[in-house]
Each structure stands twice: as structure tokens, then as C-alpha cells.
């Protein structure tokens, strides 16, 4: 496929020629480009992803296409998303190099990124959760990633001048933001061409979402926040399919949806997907007794928020006299006043995170793109039962999120829907 301005979609064969003509990539492969093993592994909704392994080096090459891969050319999509992904990987990598893969090469014309290959035994976190694998460092690592990337790209760290400049740059990622607006905050609440669910079992449940006026009013507030609030450089799609793990490594990938938006959108996406994993466990119970694993997931949910809150506040204290202009030291000049400001800020962020997490859960059950946690449950009635409990919990959480003040209260409500 030839595109405008020199873009062409690569395949396993033509990628070899591209690599050979790009010195920086030849260098990564130790100048040994004969007998490269190239495998296309993109199982996502949008892009082609190639693993390139040579005798002296390896990499992952990701290329964005001018349409949504899982639907086809009938749904065009800007390939410029690769630019925003590359910039975000570099920016987030600057603040949290331990949990973001290094970018080796970016070609804007070709919408192509080459980056570090996360070798086996790294797997997608979602697959590990389906398999019932416990990751003892997950909460520690993800809380670290979220605290560092969100704090350092916010007005708690930036001057308003540099913040506005960065916001203006990322306003260019408008198409992917509009896609999120559509599939998360709009489509599940109306009749939409691409919506689907476990039918006929959840027909009534999907209809109930579309008829729930209170739910619609609450999701409208979240949509407004998503569109209007440029709080920090968020990953924009921080679910368990965008994280690769081993028992001692956690790597965040695929930030092509990145933009300056509400911090709670990232935090909620991660927590919401862990809650989906929790409710899916009964569908996988034939593999083993999952009760102890469900406890581990709930513990990880609690630890992630509690650690995030602690680390984020520590960064704030550390940089309270820095360039950040949200809370100027000359004004918030006593420990008690700063503590009041932090308490109020974190309370709002907690409620934002719960709301966005709930909205992300709902769209994964009655919207266009579902999760393998549920989809891999073969028995439809069993799957529907798991999905219904997750959906009912998410609706309650979205509508009543301001009533909760600790993550432990949220865990208690999850238990109520686990009967």
C-alpha cells in the first residue's frame, strides 16, 4: 500500500530492506542483518507489530496504518498516532526508565517506531491474569510508573508556560481522543453499529445501560473532564493489555492514545481492568481454585492506589519549592495548608479514578472492544454471569463514586457483587 508522502505499509519481507537502509537499526542488530527472524505479532486493534531477532541483537518494530486494523479501511484512522506514541515513550521513559521500553528509532513519514524487545518470559499482563499468575511487584512498579509520569507532566512540576506548550503539541492527537470519546463515553449508552455483548444473555443488561438516566448524567461529567481537563500527559490506554510483565519486571507499552488529560483516566483504566480480571476468575475456575488468586487481585488493587497516593504526595513534597505553578510555595507556605491542599487534590483524584475505571469497565462489556479475560470463557452463560456482576458493580461505582473515601471501601463493594 503506497501512501501520501512516502508512507508504505511494510511486511516481513520489505521490513528487512527498511532495516538494512537504516544505520541506527543496523547498529542495534550488531551490524549483522543477514538471517533476521521476523515475526508479526500484532494482536491489537490498530497496528502491525514485528519482533526482529538477529544473531547479535533484537528489537520490536511497530507501524501504524491509516485505518483501524480490527475493522478495516472502512474506519480510517490517522497514522500520526505513531508520532505521539514515540514522543510519549521518550517523555515517560525520561521520568520512569525502569518501566518504559527504550525507543531506538522513529520515522514519522513511515509512522514507524523501533524499540527495545521485551524478551520472554515477558508476557502481556492480561494473559498472566487469565492464567492465574501472581506478580508480587506489580503494584509497586505500576504505582511508581503512574506517580512519576503523571506528577512530572503536571502543573505540580511544570510552569504554566511549558505546560501549555506541551498541551498544544498533544492537541494534535485529536483523532484518537475522539475515538476514546466515542467508544468509552458515548457508544455504550446508545444504539451503536459496533456495540456487542454476550447475546441473548445480556440483551436486557445492555438495554438497562441505555435506559439509565442517572448513569448517563454521570458519564457526561466524565466525558467533559476527559475533553476539557489537561492535567497531565496520560498514557490514554493503560489497561492490562498495555503492560508486559515477568515476576520481577513491569513494562508499559502502546501509549498511542496519549494526550494531556485527567490523571484519573490512567489510574482508573488500570484499576478497572484489574477489577474486570477479578470478576472473570469464576469463569476460569475449572483450571484451578481461584479464590486465593482473587484475594491477590484485590490486594493488588488496594496496594496500587495506596502506594500511588504515597509516592505522588512524596514527589509533591520533594518539589514543592520547584517550578510547578499549581500551588506556589509563597502562597501554600505552611505545612498544614499544603497538607490541606494535598488532601483535597488526592480526594478528587481518587473519585476521578473510580469514575473513569467504572466507565472503562462498562465499555468492555457492552461496547465495541471487549477483553480476553471474559472472551476466553467458552461457556456463554458462565461468561454472561461474570460480565453481569462486573457490569452491575461498575454502574454502582460510577454513580456513587463520591461516597467512597478509601480503596478498602471499594474492595468491600466488590465483595458484595462477588456472591
TrEMBL record:
Keywords: ATP-binding, Kinase, Nucleotide-binding, Transferase
GO BP term, example: methionine biosynthetic process
Keyword set includes Chloroplast: no
InterPro entries: Aminoglycoside_PTrfase (IPR002575), Kinase-like_dom_sf (IPR011009), Methylthioribose_kinase (IPR009212)
Superkingdom of source: Eukaryota
Matching Pfam families: APH (PF01636)
Class of this enzyme: transferase
Residues annotated as domain Aminoglycoside phosphotransferase: 37-275
Keyword Kinase: yes
EC number(s) recorded for this UniProt protein: 2.7.1.100
A Gene Ontology molecular function term of the record: S-methyl-5-thioribose kinase activity
Subunit-structure text: Homodimer.
Family statement: Belongs to the methylthioribose kinase family.
Matches recorded under NCBIfam families: MTRK
Name of the molecule in the record: S-methyl-5-thioribose kinase
Organism: Acorus calamus (Sweet flag)
Gene: MTK
Amino acid at each position: 500500500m503506497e501512501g501520501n508522502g512516502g508512507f508504505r505499509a511494510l511486511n516481513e519481507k520489505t521490513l528487512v530492506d527498511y532495516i538494512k537502509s537504516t544505520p541506527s537499526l543496523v547498529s542495534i542488530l550488531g551490524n549483522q542483518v543477514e538471517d533476521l527472524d521476523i515475526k508479526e505479532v500484532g494482536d491489537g486493534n490498530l497496528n502491525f507489530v514485528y519482533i526482529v531477532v538477529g544473531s547479535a541483537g533484537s528489537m520490536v518494530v511497530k507501524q501504524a496504518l491509516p485505518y483501524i486494523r480490527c475493522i478495516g479501511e472502512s474506519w480510517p484512522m490517522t497514522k500520526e498516532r505513531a508520532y505521539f506514541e514515540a514522543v510519549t515513550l521518550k517523555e515517560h521513559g525520561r521520568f520512569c526508565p525502569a518501566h518504559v521500553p527504550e525507543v531506538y528509532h522513529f520515522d514519522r513519514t513511515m509512522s514507524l517506531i523501533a524499540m527495545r524487545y521485551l524478551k520472554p518470559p515477558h508476557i502481556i499482563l492480561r494473559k498472566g491474569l487469565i492464567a492465574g499468575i501472581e506478580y508480587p511487584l506489580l503494584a509497586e512498579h505500576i504505582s511508581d510508573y503512574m506517580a512519576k509520569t503523571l506528577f512530572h507532566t503536571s502543573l505540580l512540576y511544570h510552569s504554566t508556560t511549558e505546560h501549555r506548550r506541551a498541551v498544544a503539541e498533544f492537541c494534535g492527537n485529536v483523532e484518537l481522543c475522539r475515538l476514546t470519546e466515542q467508544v468509552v463515553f458515548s457508544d455504550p449508552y446508545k444504539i451503536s453499529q459496533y456495540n456487542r455483548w454476550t447475546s441473548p444473555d445480556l440483551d436486557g443488561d445492555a438495554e438497562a445501560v441505555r435506559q439509565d438516566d442517572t448513569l448517563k448524567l454521570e458519564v457526561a461529567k466524565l466525558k467533559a473532564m476527559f475533553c476539557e481537563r489537561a492535567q497531565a500527559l496520560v498514557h490514554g490506554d493503560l489497561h492490562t493489555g498495555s503492560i508486559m510483565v515477568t515476576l520481577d519486571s513491569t513494562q508499559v507499552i502502546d501509549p498511542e492514545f496519549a494526550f494531556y488529560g485527567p490523571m484519573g483516566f490512567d489510574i482508573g483504566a488500570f484499576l478497572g481492568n484489574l477489577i474486570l480480571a477479578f470478576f472473570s476468575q469464576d469463569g476460569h475456575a475449572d483450571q484451578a481454585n481461584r479464590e486465593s488468586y482473587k484475594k491477590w487481585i484485590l490486594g493488588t488493587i488496594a496496594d496500587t492506589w495506596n502506594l500511588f497516593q504515597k509516592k505522588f504526595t512524596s514527589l509533591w513534597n520533594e518539589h514543592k519549592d520547584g517550578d510547578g505553578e499549581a500551588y506556589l510555595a509563597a502562597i501554600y507556605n505552611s505545612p498544614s495548608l499544603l497538607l490541606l491542599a494535598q488532601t483535597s487534590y488526592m480526594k478528587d483524584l481518587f473519585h476521578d479514578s473510580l469514575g473513569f475505571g467504572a466507565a472503562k469497565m462498562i465499555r468492555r462489556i457492552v461496547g465495541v472492544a471487549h477483553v480476553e479475560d471474559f472472551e476466553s470463557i467458552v461457556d456463554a452463560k458462565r461468561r454472561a454471569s461474570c460480565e453481569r456482576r462486573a457490569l452491575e458493580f461498575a454502574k454502582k461505582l460510577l454513580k456513587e463514586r463520591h461516597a467512597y473515601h478509601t480503596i478498602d471501601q471499594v474492595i468491600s463493594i466488590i465483595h458484595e457483587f462477588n456472591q
